[in-house]
Each structure stands twice: as C-alpha cells, then as structure tokens.
Amino acid sequence: MEIPFLDLKIPHRELEEELVQVFRDGLRNASFIGGMQVESFEKEFAQFCETQHCIAVNSGTDALRFALIAAGIGPGDEVITVPNTFIATTEAISQTGATPVFVDIDERTYNIDPNKLEDYLKNRLQPPASSLQPRPRAVLPVHLYGQPADMDSIQEIADRYGLMVIEDACQAHGALYHSKKDDQWKKAGSMGLASAFSFYPGKNLGACGEGGAVTTNDEGIAQKIRMLRDHGQAKKYYHEFEGYNGRLDAIQAGILRVKLRCLNEWNEKRRHNASLYTQLLLPYTLHSTPNTRHLSLITPHEPEWAKAVYHLYIIRTKKRDELQKYLSENGIHTGLHYPVPLHLQGAYANNGFKKGDFPVTEEVSSEILSLPMFPQLTEQQIRYVADNIKQFLKLRLDFNTQHVTRNTQYLTPKPL
Hints:
14% strand, 13 helices, three-stranded antiparallel beta sheet, seven-stranded mixed beta sheet, alpha/beta
C-alpha cells in the first residue's frame, strides 16, 4: 500500500466544481485584487475565529510580520518565542527590526513552557539593565501542530511583566482552548492582541497558492494592517507610511471561502484519525521495561484544556531515523517537523546560541516523526501505518530481548 504524507488531490476533486466556479467568476468580473471575495472571506473567517476583525494578506509570514509591526514592535524590542517552530516565526520578528529570543518548550505539548517563560523574564529584567539592550515587549506563542498553547498562563505572565501577546496560529485553524479564567472555550486566534494564520496549501485551511490573515479585536491594529498590506495607503495614492505589497488575491479568497465551509468537518476527521492512531499505538507507548524503553513511542498529549485540530500527528521515538526508513520501504511517507531547532540553524549562527541551550527542544527534535495526516485518510490506511510501526518495534524488541538474554546467560555463572 502506498500512503502519502498529505493528499491534496482528494479534497480538490470533491470540491472541483465549486472551485472552478470561483475562477470563472473571477474571469468574468475581472476583480482580481480586493473586492467582494476578499471582503466576504474576511467577514466569514472573523466569525469562524470569533473575532471582530480579519485582515487577509498574501502569506502567513506577512500575517506575523504585519501583526508585530501594527502592535508597535520594532528596533530595540525583544519578542519571546520558541526554537521549535518554522523559521517564519522568527523571520517576522527580525524583519521588524526586533530581536527574537527563545525559551524552551513543554516536553508534552511541544509548545512554550510558561514556567520557563517566567524564569527567563525574572532573570532578564533583574536590575541593573542596560538602557542600550533590547527590552522584552511581546510574547509570540506558537500553537504548534494544531495544539493550543497554555494561553491563560502565558497571558497572566505577560500582564505581570507588561508584555503583549501575539499568537502564531498558522497551524491551528479551529483549535480550541478552555480558559479557566473566563470559564469558556476560545478559538485559537481570538485570545492575543492579534493572531496570524497561514493558508499555505497543506494547512487545515489551505489556499491553492499562498495566503494568510491576521485576526484581532483591536480596531487600530486592524486598520494599520489594512494599510501595511497596501503600500501604507488608506486612500489610493495617499500614503501615510511605507508599507508592503501584501494583499490576498481575490481568487484565493474565493477558494478559501469554499473550503471554510468544510473546515469544521475536516477538523473533526483529523481528530478522529488522531484518536485512532493513538488507540492503535497504545500498546507501544511509554510503559516498557528499562531494557526496551528506547523502543517505545510517545504519542501526542492533549491536555484537558485543549481541543487540538492535528495539523500534524507527531510521534517520538529514539529510533526515529530507522523507523522512517522502514516506513518508507513499506510505502508510507512521513515528515520531520522540525529536525533542526532554530537556535542551531545557520541563519542564527551569529546570535550566540549553542547546542545545549534548549535541551527539551533539542531532544524532541531528534525524535519527532510526522505520520500521514489529512481528513480523507482512511481507517484502512491508518491501520496499515500502525501495523508497520508495530512490526518495526516488534522486530527490534525481539532482537533486543535476545541480545539481553544472551548477554545475561554469558555473564551469569553456571550452577555448581
């Protein structure tokens, strides 16, 4: 059986007539930039995220960058995030002129660890602090793999230290977080001062090309981003400041409107698929003996306050590279997200980071493996993946057991 890591063909075949009609309408009305499709998508996605405003832009990276700029982030500021994310998160910080700084992640959720965030701020803000050094201004938690970060804890810490919170929700369309503080479930993208989404084709809500959006409840930030995406103008040819060409194409907005109607259903299918994976792999999760622990799996942890949407389904094993090779040989395509943490990337070689700075991230990055995950994944395919993982572990377990037995027999004196 050949199982792709991600299948984008099936949903587009299912929606082909509606998607083609969007293109036909675009040709007939020649409204390619802005217009009804973009405005309608912004309204519909704001309603989906339970926010007052959505501003559509041309990528998730622009969404992050524009959100930071609109919030007033710039040179002399520090923005705190995690090293376990795609580089767009830190590119957006650097491109405002601010300095990205890292804190380590929670080993179970792979998101920012609030305790480590507080530790960093306590140490960082101890007097005397040089007025020439960048100062912490914002926290940028990443809802990685579709799993919400612990936003109550993050917001409480940020409030105490006078920081803004801006969400990177680029992988978390529709994810839910239960706020104990407000005693309600909240959508990812509705809790920070502003939030960024990506509509890259492989995302839970993906365009047929590039796309992104910022959601916010702040009117001033929304208006600033509308101008930033359009060369700094609120009125044509009247430029209040230098901006960017960051608009979302109307045809892409129309495509996203069609797909948005399916998003809740697709997310539920992802959750079902994740549950089935976890159930099938349960016998091989961490409950093994010390001699075989290195052959066990760690499956995703979903806290009681989270409803993840499983943009990715990540497992961990000490035998990651061997397992990936074995699955590939059996027709199963997998991914690595992300094998080299950002603090060890060449792009940040001059920032003074070294191996060992963020031990949890470094350990996780050497063990993670992304299994096939998309809404149309069938039960038969999931069982085939799980069976192959079990077979791989069983083969290694049998070898390990025999090896341990042989060594034990060799070292144990024969009875007199």
